[in-house]
Task: inverse folding
């Protein structure tokens, strides 16, 4: 058995704490960056046969934002109630 470090927001692990410390501020599951994966408007519109298809109910896309971090995330981001 060995000790590993785990991201507080996702399943990423590493033997080096520095790797996880540098990952956490940019982790797409970190609510502080106001990304799609933590937004209440990010829903699964997929079908049972084709599998999940996640979309933004308001029509926004992570790809639309240039330099996402400096803009402070999505302007319509909202945490689950």
Result:
């Amino acid at each position: 058995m060995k000790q590993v470090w785990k991201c507080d927001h996702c399943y990423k692990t590493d033997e080096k704490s520095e790797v996880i410390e540098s990952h956490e501020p940019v982790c797409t599951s970190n609510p502080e960056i106001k990304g799609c994966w933590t937004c209440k408007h990010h829903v699964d519109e997929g079908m049972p046969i084709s599998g999940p298809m996640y979309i933004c109910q308001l029509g926004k896309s992570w790809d639309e934002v240039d330099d996402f971090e400096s803009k402070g995330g999505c302007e319509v981001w909202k945490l689950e109630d």
